[in-house]
Design brief:
The complex is a heterodimer of chains A (about 425) and B (about 140). Chain A is built from eleven helices and twelve strands. In chain A, strands 1-2-3-4-5-6-7-8-9-10-11-12 form a twelve-stranded antiparallel barrel. In chain A, a hairpin with a 2-residue loop joins strand 6 and strand 7. In chain A, helix 2 packs across helix 9 and helix 6 packs antiparallel against helix 9. In chain B, a hairpin with a 4-residue loop joins strand 5 and strand 6. Chain B is globular and about 45 Å long. With about 140 residues, chain B is mostly beta strands. Chain B has no helices and eleven strands. A six-stranded antiparallel β-sheet of chain B has the order 1-2-10-9-4-7, with no helix packed on it. A five-stranded mixed β-sheet of chain B has the order 3-11-8-5-6, with no helix packed on it. Classes of the chains: A alpha+beta (about 425), B mainly beta (about 140). Chains A and B meet through helix 2, helix 4, helix 6, helix 7 and helix 10 of A and strand 1, strand 4, strand 5, strand 8 and strand 9 of B.
Chain lengths: ~425, ~140
């Protein structure tokens, strides 16, 4: 009965997604150019440069997987991705929306923890993982990650241990690689004229404002010389009073000064966008091994997976091929087989109703599994990953399968999870911790 | 000027503990300290005439950079009343920069409280750059 209701709901969800997707993928302008807090003249000028440049660029790297491995039965991913978090990731599937463990009781929650060898090494050595020298000297350590945790089989409360290791055999997106350092070097070269032009704008604007306000006898109290005025415009409070006293023409003249120097900022913007895009669309190839040690009569699983990721514009494609062994020990028959999976990840840049810092990510995923002695299983899934704050995301998914491992009937499931990427959140937490201290 | 209330925009979050202009005397120099979190720092200090130093001029990526900037390095022209300097950062491969600028005498001792800039600039958006500006006067 529940499946009958969920199937049309899933179809409706997918149909509604398609037109929204086209709109949501469209580029949108910068979310906000002007500071939300107090601003001095530098911040005001920076905001005006931004307003004049207004062009939206992709902000996402959708390939770092903090979620449970796709091999976990209750994972919100059908397809494994090549990258793991640089430091540590935590995956939790809160709620299996169509679970039926024991009557109305929900089953236990699967949990996995993914951490890089780099995180372990820097922790044990007492080094700062965000030190550029440490980061660049240890690229090989970042290519290996481990996953530990447990899986909860469908419709049960068992907690089956999951252990995995992943080796990023080829990481085209490592910012410490020679090719990517060259891309970063291009940004540095474009930054130099932008920096000179910012100094020129600041010079021209402070002198223009002092002269204009002096002519109108509207200089702030206590200001006699240019140097007095220069001190005032460093203060957000004084700057706000000065800005409030400007006429429309004076504000337009500030924009005219900015426009004289705008090309260097446009070049920096385009160079940065191209460099980031070039890095993010490079391919990645990973090899992983995951085992799930089942309890009771369920077979232990061993899976070796080859994963390939490639960026395509702002989207990315992931393809997996796996060899799977299921061992029943002395009690039953072993089975071997394979799985092929593919996914496309689409950042919804144009749909940002709650002003999240990063865009939501829409993923379409599918996999097919064939094992000896059983009929093939085909699954398809639509997933929406909603960023909450830096490093924290909620994935919501709806999946359809022709059958499940244990039941020969169609199945439609909804899932709701939570992922946490420590490398993205570390900075925010550390800063807050310092403030509390 | 101390401003512990961060200014946050799509460009970057700035936390300024100290920000002031400086009038340098003969024999004094500015000592720049730049601290970075991330993989590859990208930053420059410039006036309108030239770039005075950049991350790539200061060697391979490290966490702590230092640069001594003499009064004679200034480009203030005859008709100028002080000159603006911009410290510009990019976040393509870095998360946070801390800039500290101190006024030192010839013996490398801080002059008075001597801190000209002490501020953090941070962003997790690799596409943004961020600017800080202050005025340096070198004429008597």
């Amino acid at each position: 009965m529940r499946n009958r209701l969920l199937q049309p709901a899933t179809l409706l969800f997918l149909i509604l997604c398609l037109p929204v997707l086209a709109l949501a993928q469209a580029a949108v302008p910068d979310k906000q150019c002007s500071p939300t807090g107090p601003q001095n003249l530098t911040d005001y000028v920076e905001g005006r440069i931004c307003e004049n440049l207004r062009s939206r660029v992709d902000q996402t790297d959708p390939t770092k997987q903090a979620a449970p491995p796709a091999a976990a039965a209750n994972s919100t991913s059908l397809v494994e991705r090549s990258s793991a978090p640089d430091l540590l990731g935590f995956g939790l599937d809160f709620l299996n929306l169509s679970d039926k463990a024991a009557g109305d009781k929900k089953s236990a929650t699967p949990k996995t923890l993914t951490f890089s060898a780099y995180a372990l090494r820097t922790k044990l050595a007492g080094k700062d993982p965000l030190d550029p020298k440490v980061y660049n000297d240890n690229a090989k350590w970042r290519s290996v990650s481990f996953t530990v945790g447990y899986d909860v089989p469908e419709n049960s409360n068992d907690r089956d241990p999951v252990i995995g290791i992943k080796w990023l055999a080829y990481n085209g997106r490592d910012v410490s690689s020679k090719d990517n350092r060259t891309e970063i070097g291009k940004i540095q070269e474009a930054l130099k004229p932008a920096s000179r032009n910012f100094a020129a704008i600041d010079d021209d604007v402070r002198i223009y404002l002092f002269t204009a306000l002096q002519k109108r006898s509207k200089l702030p109290a206590g200001v006699v010389q240019q140097s007095d005025f220069d001190n005032k415009i460093l203060s957000p409070t004084d700057t706000q009073l000065i800005l409030d006293s400007l006429t429309d023409d004076e504000k337009k003249n500030i924009d005219r000064i900015i426009l004289k120097y705008i090309n260097a900022f446009r070049t920096l913007d385009v160079t940065t966008r191209n460099a980031v895009q070039a890095i993010r669309t490079r391919p990645q190839l990973a090899l992983s091994f995951t085992t799930t040690q089942r309890k009771g009569k369920r077979p232990d699983e061993y899976a070796g997976t080859l994963t390939f990721d490639k960026g395509m514009g702002t989207n990315s494609l992931s393809i997996n091929g796996s060899f799977i062994m299921k061992r029943n020990g002395i009690k039953g028959k072993d089975s071997n087989g394979g799985q092929f999976a593919a996914a496309i990840h689409l950042p919804l840049n144009g749909f940002n109703p709650l002003a999240y810092r990063d865009p939501m990510l829409f993923s379409l995923e599918a996999n097919g599994t064939a094992m000896t002695g059983t009929a093939p299983i085909f699954k398809a899934q639509a997933k929406l990953t909603i960023p909450i704050i830096a490093g924290m995301e909620i994935p919501i998914s709806v999946s359809v399968a022709n059958r499940t491992e244990f039941v020969k009937e169609k199945e439609v499931k909804g899932k709701f999870g939570f992922t946490f990427d420590v490398s993205k959140a570390l900075k925010a937490f550390r800063d807050n911790f310092v403030k509390i201290q | 000027m101390a401003n512990d209330q961060p200014a946050v925009s799509s460009r970057c979050k700035k936390t300024r503990r100290v920000l002031r202009n400086v009038h340098m005397q003969d024999g004094q120099h500015l000592h720049y300290f730049v601290t970075v979190d991330g993989a590859t720092p990208v930053f420059s200090l410039s006036c309108r005439h030239k770039t005075h130093f950049s991350a790539d001029d200061l060697g391979p990526p490290v966490k702590n950079y230092e640069k001594i900037w003499q009064k004679s390095d200034a480009d203030e022209e005859a008709g100028q009343d002080g000159e603006s300097y911009a410290f510009t950062t990019a976040f393509a491969a870095a998360l946070k920069y801390t800039l500290r600028v101190e006024l030192h005498d010839a013996a490398h001792t801080r002059v008075g409280d001597g801190v000209i800039v002490d501020a953090d600039y941070e962003s997790d958006n690799p596409l943004v750059s961020c600017n800080e500006a202050f005025v340096i006067r070198t004429k008597p």
